[in-house]
Amino acid sequence: MTILQTPTFARAVKRLHPNQKADLDAAVRLLLEAPEAGELKKGDLAGIRVYKFRISNQITLLAYTYVERILMFTLLALGAHENFYRDIK
After folding, report:
1. Is 16:24 a contact under the CB 8 Å cutoff?
2. Tens digits of per-residue pLDDT, 12-70?
3. CATH of the domain at 30
């Protein structure tokens, strides 16, 4: 499986502390095992899935896409709910 990350996602990960990165890694591993775990969005965000999880007791959203026929998993964005959907449009 090919795993890609956008520059937006990479910048967000750089700002995390080591214990927060461990929580993110656990969430990504879970998504790799079950890509349908995230909520599929509609409208302008069609084709994007968003998975909610906790980093240091704060709810964090992870936007990603998954193309099963070519086994490609793309990590798009990471952040808190505030302005999250506006930013990924």
Report:
1. yes
2. 999 999 999 999 999 999 999 999 999 999 999 999 999 999 998 999 999 999 998 99
3. 3.30.2310.20
